[in-house]
Amino acid sequence: MKALNLIKKLFGESSFSQIRHARYLGWEDAFEVEFEDGLCFLEPHEAIRKANRIAASDRPVAVAVDSDLHSHFMVTYESGAQAEVSWSFVRENAPAETIPTARVPPAPSALNT
User: Fold this and answer.
1) Domains in the chain and their CATH numbers?
2) Segments in the chain below pLDDT 70
3) How much is the pTM?
């Protein structure tokens, strides 16, 4: 499983490939996503639920790949909630470190004068 994580790229570095199929594997509690270029990823259900704010108690009832562009798949849950998962969510990793931001000094207050 760790070998597959090495294939993922950082945000903005991967190239688009259409999704061939996606399915939910209940025994793994994960989604298997296969791309046209042959790569296949096992995406944890927890990550998809967290990104789409889906309750942990909801169970998926349907998984459908976009029929026009094959750029994402939709997961429909028992409660009627839907999660949209794009190709980049599966193929890209978040950066390991956050980008440092410039610190702005606080404005002088009128009370300290």
Assistant:
1) 2-94 (3.30.2020.30)
2) 1-14, 93-113
3) 0.69
